[in-house]
Amino acid sequence: MPTGKSWLQQSVQFFWLICAVAVLFIEPICLSAATIEENISAIQQIDQKAKNGEQATAALQNLQQNASAGDLLPLLNAFQEANPLAANYLRNAVETAASRLKKEGQTLPQEELHAFVVDINHNPTARKIAFDLLTGINESYREELITGMLNDPSPELRREAVALAISEAKDLHEAKSEEAKPAFEKALSGAVDSDQVQEIITPLEELGVTVNLQEHFGFLCRWHLIGPFDNSGLIGFDVAYPPEKQVDLEASYEGKEGAVSWQELATEEDYGILDISEDLGPYKGAVMYATTEFVSPEKQTVEFRMGTPNAWKLWINGKLMFSHEEYQRGMKLDQYRIPVELQAGKNQILLKLLQNEQEEDWAQRYQFQFRVSDLVGSAVHAEK
């Protein structure tokens, strides 16, 4: 008879020792398709208020620790159906898993990542993550890919392409090459960010080219306005004054300070800012309405991008699209972005802009800017 540990106990221990050694030499495999799908599904089910957050966090940790190189593409594809919070979870999963895999000496799928990046039908954020992974493997991919992304639907990739085009144009400009002007104009054709546009137009002006910023960004600069109506005590936000019921440019109504009628105003300010205080009056405790038409050549999805320090509501073709009751917040380009489905032909835009009664110097701004763009930020122009 064996002494000490039983023969069975020794056999079991030997079995587990063999398994442990084998794990060291077996190439890691992907999570099973079902497990990948289950983890992705758990992450996609988290909502913007973090409902289902516990399940999503557990799935994220599983992916961080266990996802292999073959699981990266399914994770990137999952961005297509992910809300912004879920997309953050997916980004964390991909980047953490990829970092771990590289430390373990595993090879990331270069060909698959390359194909993913160049396919513009994939989610823009996911494509940028794939691009970063790819260039992290081999930096030579950067210039190869970025050169063709001047009008890419991914804002981040487009910005990098514009930066490269600006750099090349500056080199030509310093060399006093005749190719500098078309090089800067090419860079401008893809630029949607204000800082890059400014970086381009300065040398273009030196070369005798005047850039129409209103046209470049797609600002709507001609409006009809009416008011003021009453917003004393901030009552006006929920009051439907006559222009909300019908836009009739021939009509006049009783306003806060007497009869009011529609007035046509246009702005020549480079960034399309229409200043109510300067052009109509420094109204306080007031409601103004502004309307214009946008003729679309076809049915299309665009973004209305506006900036204002005032409270506001927005209608398109009589449908309330968005409202924001906050005063003196500050104003910047593309402060608000509202996805809108335009119908083919005429589209009526109506803005309600409200000013409060604060008397401080910093609380006197009563203005707005409004532009129409695609989802990346390139101008969408009305049919003339």
Automatic annotation (TrEMBL):
Domain of life the protein comes from: Bacteria
The protein's name in its UniProt record: Uncharacterized protein
